[in-house]
């Protein structure tokens, strides 16, 4: 991964096309469909996450360099921790007895 | 506040310890002054940034805290040895089980393991120090000051008494108005800063400073487990930091994070505490697993069986350890689906642990086993820990846990996990790496006394607790009536604790005896070991390696010995860059301690004024442009010749 690749920048092209597609799709969902507001928010939120991932990998060279893989593992682990702590706590504290009253 | 509120009064036991502490302090100061050792102590130890010396100080503090926590344990055992005893009253008993728990986990297990990590890890990966030596010293001093602050509570102001878990609402101001629980909140916060810094330090050290050629899959197992432990520290300790900050705000400034009064939720404390508390179990047990792996491989004369599966199970444990915290409070009234999910994740964690047990057994299989003391501890660990693990799976079943919850069965379970899993490992590690630290072995003969007394005493003490637990005795009971059928078990258990204490005394005697009489000419590799820490002199020189070794495979030193490549060429020597000593870590540690003490007593003006000390320390540290110094080649040559004979 440390070697510099020459030749046609396929990664950049694919990333660019995907980003545009995802954006257009989000616009379509938001303006051209009859989903409720919550559904729209969820869908475009999900699309935004995908697009962020594409940017990280295709343009921000997250996997390149000496510690590339480590960065990726780091980010994934941090996200995992944040999700577990936040949603885990909410779930644990709002189900059971707390949910009854 | 009057003076008799400040000092704890009215209990002859505590009065005796107050006098004893006073006399010991005066004695120590007089001794150091008499021997004219103040300057030596300051320049060689207090200001050191050498990872080996910091490690030794950690271990020393850990042994001291082991003694304190052990005395707490003995007092509890004495109080419950017969029904209706009046040796301790309820309040005193509460304080003692609280400090026993906190001290054993945070001020004994943690520093012992971090101490051994400090001594061994840089040597094992072929580095000259940790990544941030000064930060390492700061970690130690923060831990040490926090431990002292916590310990002083039983003579000044009163000890925390809401259990080591300090559950709200009991731990809140309403039900525990004294300063005791402030000690818990403040001292653990200070220690936590140090631990977090240690975690970061060791991650960077292991990721960035391994010897050339030591790829991920060529790292020794102890290095792997220490790395994963450091990662869990960085993941989990901030949760505790936040929980303790909430607790401090609740107790000192009247907020209501955990009190129902203004919409707070005591369950939130439990939730946050165990979000940290369960990973904490793996923080202390993983380095221990690594130590056993090193010791077993060395004394079975085989490479570790299933190295890769060992690595994957360690990483798997790190992942799963964040997903099981609710099993500490199944009975709090969670929904059935919550309890089911956490039952399953808890049982899943037995899988990687089981993989490790079998790997150790297969490492032993057909090995040429040498029953050294380090090996004995590792062998005793396997069956004892398995009992702890199996009872853990019993407790993991939420439905069954309603029977076991908060009984002595649980107490027996976690002692069967933590004593074999951590204490046995620390003993194995001490016997194994003692020569690396001090240049002589601990006596194998006295060590056998230590081993047998401690292991037999341990089983006698804690095995009966399973049965009184099943008979319905709940934990933290300071006394009980006659005729419940518990007297026999608990009497037995009390006798066991004395045997165990005798084992600890044998260790102390062993250290004293070996220090005076053990032979010093043991060479650099007294155990015929496999990893890099033995490739340099024993005890390790302050620069660790004259030339950084190159690694081509797992167990690199074993490989070098086989190929006859352990020698050193004169032409390979280059000046070694070393960090300078620094006064800022100990200064900052003390400054934090002073601020902490004032906060405990809620003397806010004094706390604010004294926090200037922390700022001074931080500023002084930022303007410290010391770039370290170089050891010239001549000095290296001289030191290397001293143990290698001639250089090539």
The CATH architecture category of the largest domain in chain B equals: Up-down Bundle
Number of helices of chain B: 21
CATH class term of the largest domain in chain B: Mainly Alpha
Biggest interchain interface, per-side counts: A-B, 17 and 21 residues
Major sheet strand order of chain B: 1-2
Segments of chain A where pLDDT lies below 50 for 5+ residues?
none
Q: Sum up the overall morphology of chain B in one term.
A: globular
> How would you sum up the global shape of chain A?
flat
- Helix segment count of chain A? 4
Round the mean pLDDT of chain B to the nearest integer and report it.
93
Order of helices and strands of chain B: HHHHHHHHHHHHHHHHHHEHHEH
What is the beta-strand fraction of chain B? under 5%
Rg from alpha-carbon coordinates of chain A? 19 Å
Mean pLDDT of chain A: 82
Distance between the termini of chain A: 56 Å
Please give a handful of descriptors for the protein shown.
heterodimer; A: 101 residues; mainly alpha; 2 domains; 4 helices; flat; B: 648 residues; Cytochrome C Oxidase, Chain A; two-stranded antiparallel sheet; 21 helices; globular; heme binding (chain B); oxidoreductase (chain B); respiratory chain (chain B); cell membrane (chain B)
């Amino acid at each position: 991964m440390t070697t510099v690749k020459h030749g046609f920048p396929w990664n950049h092209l694919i990333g660019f096309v995907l980003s545009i597609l995802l954006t257009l799709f989000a616009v379509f969902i938001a303006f051209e469909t009859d989903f409720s507001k919550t559904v729209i928010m969820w869908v475009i939120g999900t699309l935004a996450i995908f697009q962020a991932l594409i940017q990280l990998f295709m343009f921000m060279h997250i996997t390149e360099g000496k510690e590339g893989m480590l960065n990726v593992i780091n980010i994934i682990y941090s996200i995992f921790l944040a999700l577990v702590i936040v949603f885990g706590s909410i779930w644990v504290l709002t189900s059971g007895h707390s949910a009854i009253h | 506040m009057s003076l008799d509120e400040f000092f704890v009064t009215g209990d002859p036991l505590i009065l005796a310890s107050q006098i004893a502490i006073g006399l010991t302090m005066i004695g120590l100061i007089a001794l150091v002054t008499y021997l004219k050792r103040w300057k030596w102590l300051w320049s060689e130890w207090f200001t050191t940034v050498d990872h080996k010396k910091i490690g030794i100080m950690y271990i020393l503090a850990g042994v001291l805290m082991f003694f304190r926590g052990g005395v707490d344990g003995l007092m509890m055992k004495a109080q419950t040895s017969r029904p209706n005893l009046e040796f301790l009253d309820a309040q005193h008993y509460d304080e003692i089980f609280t400090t026993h728990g906190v001290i054993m986990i945070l001020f004994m297990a943690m520093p012992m393991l971090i101490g051994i990590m400090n001594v061994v890890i840089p040597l094992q990966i072929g580095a000259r120090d940790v990544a941030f030596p000064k930060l390492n010293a700061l970690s130690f001093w923060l831990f040490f000051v926090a431990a002292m602050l916590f310990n002083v509570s039983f003579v000044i102001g009163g000890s925390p008494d809401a259990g080591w878990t300090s559950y709200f609402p009991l731990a809140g101001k309403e039900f525990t108005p004294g300063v005791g629980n402030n000690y818990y909140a403040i001292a653990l916060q200070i220690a936590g800063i140090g631990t977090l810094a240690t975690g970061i330090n060791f991650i960077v050290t292991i990721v960035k400073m391994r010897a050339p050629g030591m790829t991920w899959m060529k790292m020794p197992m102890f290095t792997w487990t220490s790395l994963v432990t450091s990662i869990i520290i960085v993941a989990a300790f901030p949760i505790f930091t936040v929980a303790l900050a909430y607790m401090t705000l609740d107790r000192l400034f009247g907020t209501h994070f955990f009190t129902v009064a203004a919409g707070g939720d005591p369950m939130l404390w439990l939730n946050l505490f165990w979000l940290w508390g369960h990973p904490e179990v793996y923080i202390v047990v993983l380095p221990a697993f690594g130590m056993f792996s090193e010791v077993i491989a060395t004394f079975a004369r085989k490479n570790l069986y299933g190295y890769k599966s060992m690595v994957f199970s360690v990483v798997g444990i790190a992942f799963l350890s964040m997903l099981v915290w609710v099993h500490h409070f199944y009975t709090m009234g969670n929904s059935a689906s919550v309890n089911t999910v956490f039952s399953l994740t808890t049982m899943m964690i037995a899988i990687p642990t089981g993989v490790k047990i079998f790997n150790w057994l297969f490492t032993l299989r057909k090995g040429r086993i040498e029953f050294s003391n380090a090996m004995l501890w590792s062998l005793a660990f396997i069956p004892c820990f398995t009992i702890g693990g199996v009872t853990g799976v019993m407790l993991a079943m939420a439905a069954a846990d309603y029977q076991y919850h908060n009984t002595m069965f649980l107490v027996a379970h976690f002692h069967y996990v933590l004593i074999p899993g951590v204490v046995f490992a620390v003993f194995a590690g001490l016997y194994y790496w003692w020569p690396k630290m001090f240049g002589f072995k601990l006596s194998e003969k006295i060590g056998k006394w230590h081993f047998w007394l401690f292991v037999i005493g341990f089983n006698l003490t804690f095995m009966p607790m399973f049965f009184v637990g099943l008979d319905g005795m709940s934990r933290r009971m300071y006394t009980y009536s006659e005729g419940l059928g518990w007297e026999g078990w608990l009497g037995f258990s009390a006798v066991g604790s004395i045997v165990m204490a005798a084992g600890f005394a044998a260790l102390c005697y062993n250290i004293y005896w070996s220090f005076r009489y053990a032979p010093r000419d043991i060479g650099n590799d007294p155990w015929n070991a496999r990893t890099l820490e033995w490739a340099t002199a024993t005890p390790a020189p302050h620069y660790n390696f004259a030339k950084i070794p190159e690694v081509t495979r797992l167990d690199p030193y074993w490989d070098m010995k086989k190929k006859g490549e352990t020698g050193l060429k004169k032409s390979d020597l280059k000046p070694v860059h070393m960090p300078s000593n620094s006064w800022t870590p100990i200064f900052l540690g003390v400054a934090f301690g002073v601020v902490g003490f004032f906060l405990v007593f809620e003397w806010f003006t004094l706390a604010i004024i004294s926090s200037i000390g922390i700022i001074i320390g931080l500023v002084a540290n930022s303007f410290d442009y010391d770039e370290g110094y170089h050891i010239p080649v001549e000095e290296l040559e001289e030191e290397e010749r001293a143990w290698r004979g001639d250089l090539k």
